[in-house]
Structures
1.
Amino acid sequence: MIYLDHAAATPMSDKVIEAMRPYFSHDFFNPSAAYLPAKKVAADYEAAKATIAHAIGAKAADLVITAGATEANNLAFNGISRVLYLETEHDSVREVAKQRGGVAIKVLRSGLIDLEDLKAKITDETELISVALVNGEIGVIQPLAEIAAIIREVRLDRLRRGIKTRLLLHSDASQALNLLDVSVARLGVDLLTLNAAKIYGPKGVGALYASHEAKLSPAIIGGGQENGLRSGTENVPGVIGFAKAIELAKEHLNGNRKKYAELKRTLLANLQGYELIVKKHQLDNFVNLCYNGIDGERLVFLLEDHEIYVATGAACAASKGEKSHVLKAIGLSDSEIAGSLRLTLGETNTKEQLEEAARVINEVVAKEQRRLYD
Amino acid sequence: MIYLDHAAATPMSDKVIEAMRPYFSHDFFNPSAAYLPAKKVAADYEAAKATIAHAIGAKAADLVITAGATEANNLAFNGISRVLYLETEHDSVREVAKQRGGVAIKVLRSGLIDLEDLKAKITDETELISVALVNGEIGVIQPLAEIAAIIREVRLDRLRRGIKTRLLLHSDASQALNLLDVSVARLGVDLLTLNAAKIYGPKGVGALYASHEAKLSPAIIGGGQENGLRSGTENVPGVIGFAKAIELAKEHLNGNRKKYAELKRTLLANLQGYELIVKKHQLDNFVNLCYNGIDGERLVFLLEDHEIYVATGAACAASKGEKSHVLKAIGLSDSEIAGSLRLTLGETNTKEQLEEAARVINEVVAKEQRRLYD
């Protein structure tokens, strides 16, 4: 098997499973219980939250643990009514934003945010701007610090004019942590979404970082866990696994960057007849190919026969049979979108695998071209 | 260790962990991806949902997987405005109900619902009635079928008078599945909350059963998973584990009932100087003791020194330092509430353990009485 869809899902690392194991049936106590072993579990849970928080330069108290990135994105928008969001955002941002009077900010052909469009669309009512650090489909890294600088200007201007509406910056960093050193202060974000399942951690665990400014409204109410913002008995093994995963991601950051840059070079050097959809400002484990005139979905199935697993776009969009709104937003034609492939590299990949993958992709594409045009 | 707090948390069964293991790092694919191994994972996920649904006499399509019972309870109330709820409900029902114009239904001294009070409080506007099948603090089993019969009467009457407001019955069955054969048809519920973490399954996984009548509103929006009602990449290992746990609970139902009835008899035969808070209509693994004049919280700490772990009430209420609203509702005085202990039996317990626990509890209580009153 050559798995090239790490943006859709990552296998749990052995070290993550190992870290979680004691909490399954040994340290299984309810962290809210009064006796010592439960208090030890509560302390371990808090320590894990601190590890996750520190990895992004934050404190445990600023973190709300959720059941994944989608819930975290929903929570970020809770109680907020005027939002701007990048048109290439994931559905969990787009759909929520639309419900909350959301206006889309354009992207350039490069996939980067159109900063002029952003500036033009900020009004005195705008409360939140949501821009993913790394796009899940095309891996484009957005200039969050520049966006944050624009927001600071607006805030200052509002202050001068006595306008009390706050303006927050939210970013979904789900895809970023394997390759970028993420710091909430450096990025200038008020809200940041994290996702364990994309960094070799457990599924169904995520977090929302929220600065004091953000003043979140509770999304799920009940027993009062997570400072009352997200009630429900804590998923202790999940959070322990998340902490281990983020720790490992941090540890391997430099190695990963080098590794994926090299793997990507190998892949592209061996592939033929493609166009690169994104050429710059892209995370090194993303490769977006376009074979114009060929059906990408058919390629996915043909490659499957060779146990090579790739995607055309985001998994959840694919399952709904929708055309990629991301590729459309950056200006690709329908036939270019139809001919696109997303390859996302990860820990399971080797140089040999990518040479082999390139060889098979070339072969399959050539066969398809002959079938269609000869 | 003698663990007597199974209502707060249960250890994951080895068989559950075994069932989940392949989905950690082998069958880790995103169920929404297009290639075969991902489709196999999606099929396994659906099969697990079917197993959970069948255990309560429902279909997989009627089930929304959530990150736990609290989220399921929140989802059940989503978009509904006039509700009645039993005053002894868990905070995840009470707090949500209060936000939605909720009116509390009284309980009798027995802990059972006051059916006359229920009837008196149903108005033409009432949309939802929420009564947990088994109370999490005192294990009282509510007569849901009787409540459902009352609701059917009201529906019929509304139909006759041309009132279009629907009336739904919701029940939190989190604590029930180890000992009761739960069937949505027999109970007559439209909405039913399930919780994996209370039946030796994984933490952070639950479900809401919803009949067609219920017409749920989406709680978390995004990629459109769970029929659009609860978006987010599926927690595949969690749901696989939940299915195994509910299967095991079903399998051991009769054995469990016998086992816990016997264990409870052993415990009560060996304990001295207590009063039973609940004498009838109680799940067999619940034992609620009252030592009037003694501080239950102090007993919890004293028993901890003997590695015997018990509770005074629900874990989440305990951690907030609140007095039990449940014991208050059934009419206990402040000093009776202060002197209460909740012992909940489970798979980790043996007859010898309960004899030993009774011996130590007697000793500790006697010592406390001497300290206070001699």
2.
Amino acid sequence: MSLIVQKYGGTSVANPERIKNVAKRVAAYRAKGDQVVVVVSAMSGVTDNLIKMAREIMPLPSEREMDMLLSTGEQTTIALTAIALQALGVPAISLTGAQAGIVTDGVHTNAKIKNITPKQIRALLDQGQVVIVAGFQGQTMEGQITTLGRGGSDLTAIALAAALKADLCQIYTDVDGVYTADPRIVPTARKLPEISYDEMLELAGLGAKVMQSRSVEFAKKFGVIFEVRSSLNDNPGTLVKEETPSMEGVVIRGVSLDKNQAKLTLVQVPDRPGVAALVFKAIAEANINVDMIVQNISHGLASPATDISFTTDKADLLKARKVIDSLKDKIGFREVIADENIGKLSIVGVGMRSNPGVAAKMFETLAQIGVNIAMISTSEIKVSVAIDLAKGEEAMRAVHQAFLG
Amino acid sequence: MSLIVQKYGGTSVANPERIKNVAKRVAAYRAKGDQVVVVVSAMSGVTDNLIKMAREIMPLPSEREMDMLLSTGEQTTIALTAIALQALGVPAISLTGAQAGIVTDGVHTNAKIKNITPKQIRALLDQGQVVIVAGFQGQTMEGQITTLGRGGSDLTAIALAAALKADLCQIYTDVDGVYTADPRIVPTARKLPEISYDEMLELAGLGAKVMQSRSVEFAKKFGVIFEVRSSLNDNPGTLVKEETPSMEGVVIRGVSLDKNQAKLTLVQVPDRPGVAALVFKAIAEANINVDMIVQNISHGLASPATDISFTTDKADLLKARKVIDSLKDKIGFREVIADENIGKLSIVGVGMRSNPGVAAKMFETLAQIGVNIAMISTSEIKVSVAIDLAKGEEAMRAVHQAFLG
């Protein structure tokens, strides 16, 4: 008998019909003799609709009340899921985050899990119940309802798997698992049977939208092995786990393309100490995430000057530009150039560490198809380049071909 | 400074626009220096939609899970109402039934309030907050979410008013208050400035749909004076309170017409002891509410026989008929006649007690306009008659005219 934690996202529980399908899958595991804890998200569309109503009343509603409001979404799903299991003759009971013993800090709309007391869940499992837990939510020590922010239901599932010492944690989604590249762009992309936490983290940060980084970080911290798999079929998914020696044999685990980046370049910035600090402090204070930063060498003019480029999410481009413009007098650069037509192409793999020449091979591949590299940034297990967006998909296919066949 | 408990029903909070209107009204009271506790129902339509989804999954879903499901409706409204008050610059905070300290028994979907610990509400009021409480819901001592059944939000408001020793409890609805008769039928009907608990209870049981009996009973038990008034205007409503000597001066407080009754007659029932018991025990076991019962005198046939008639809700007619048919062999009556074309016309007033001849005057009035009386039932403060449905409204106007002008 295994203890399995399963998590189903919003599209998997989008309507009563799909909830019935989820119940069938859960019932099949239980019929094999497993104990099952099910974590569900709000039915897709529900959360957006609640947010819309709140904004009709007030553009920036209080975060405490948003948590009170949004937590109803998951509460609706757990009740319907429990009913669907009961309809199949399977004993099932729903628990809110609070009832499940999920205690968080008091940072509304983005709370952190402080601890989990799964006493209630254990007792119910021992009674033979399937336990359905509301994802994305918890409660402070003082009894305030909180939510965990984006990707919160994944976090609930992984945290419960850790607290319950579950044998398996399955994250059901609408894709079959983690691929070497997006199969819609790279037809030869393959599903990975396994991937390390670190590789998954890099991919999460690179536009591969399977999971939020914080859930992967939590799983890594507590050593929770989880499987990303589809709720639409029975194919095995991708196991995400600690790096094993065999993983280093594969040089590159995957290739990703982030089309959602934009580049800002400050042209002819006076080359004196503290200028970069000034720029990126102001950007950070405006809550804008910066990804790649490149400072080119000086141009050898009479007064030394340099160009500073950085990338950010397209959505933040206008805001970032305003911040930079407000610094013009203080810094004295010549102009700002915004470029929305960039794509960030990345290769990820722990095997890079023991295989020198990976970056060179990537650059060479791009050169062969005439793609110019605008920026480069690397980590121990990743190489990213900013390139012309129009050539992004072609470049992705070429790089995938070069490393992964 | 007064402490006011206000309750707003589903139509008063049906959409963000109406919730804003509720907030304006609450803010106006608070601007006068009052402390305000607001109890809200689910937005109209929301509960029905949740029930529909559950039934799509299972015709008779578990009551524990229905409570988990339906309690989200009020939780949504409290958050939006708190946001609407904050948008007006009024400090406001929402509380679920559990957070408000409403402890119930464990009878899911129809729980009884066991006690209320309003410590949290008091503390928040003392901080200057308007406190928004989810109606219709509570929590057992063991932390299970429960709902209070039909009219539950009224009950929450009245119970909170009792627990907080509120100076005033206002039940906002879509009518101006309690009328001497339904103004859509009787154009001369007047709004009552006050009415006794007992009169209100009789009216609640007679098809006047302002409030459920149990809320009025609770108010009577704990001496909570409450006002029924409209959320659409600023007209004073109707105060519901303990009977005062002056109330006896008015013979009849109101006239009501229940069009939703049906009559079943068992013809030629053998007149022997225990037959009526047999009939109504079977009816009760089928969970059918019986209202009026009349047993006519024997017809003087060879073997003594009698007719038994009773009324029930139209919705229960078929079910009741089946129960009666199943008894035919056992009892040996000749036939069953069902009549859906009856109306129950009632007059209510505590003044009846000290004014003999009220019933006679009602019967006389009906005789004058040629209305035949099929059944009669009376209580200390009420006279009801079953009459031809087609003549119901005309009869109501005539009786209203005779007693109330």
